Amino acid sequence: MKEVDRSRNIYTFISKLNLGGNDCISGEGRLPKSGLLIVLLGVVFMNGNRATEEEIWEFLNLVQKEYLNYRQVPNSDPPCYEFLWGLRACADTSKMKVLEVLAKFHGRLPSSFSDLYAKALRDQAERAGLRGAARAPPMAEASAPSRAKSRSSSHI
Question: What Cα–Cα distance (Å) separates residue 134 from each residue in 89, 95, 123?
């Protein structure tokens, strides 16, 4: 923080973020700490270089839109909170799609984020298994002869 005007108690925050992409948390496949800032600046830029408070809160209101779940970390003392994928995020996108966008942003291939890529592949396999299970008829139904077929064949 830097003092701007002592007589009026005006201060400003001095950003130590390197928006050039070197402010990554250590470790392979980690995201820049400034990622949310970049997205928020994108909202401002896409709205004619200004955004109303309402527009910013609308964007940040991902919990009420069920894109994110917000919960207390179990057994945390003092209490701390975390965000998780919400139901709507799970329905609207996949971990692989998110990883593809992030990889493109970093000028890399999704597979170069090996741990995240493995998780995204597992997520795809789980989703495919759930979709297959939802479409497959129960065994009794699948093995029973179809009455519609037997009736239609007698009319030929």
Answer: 20, 21, 16
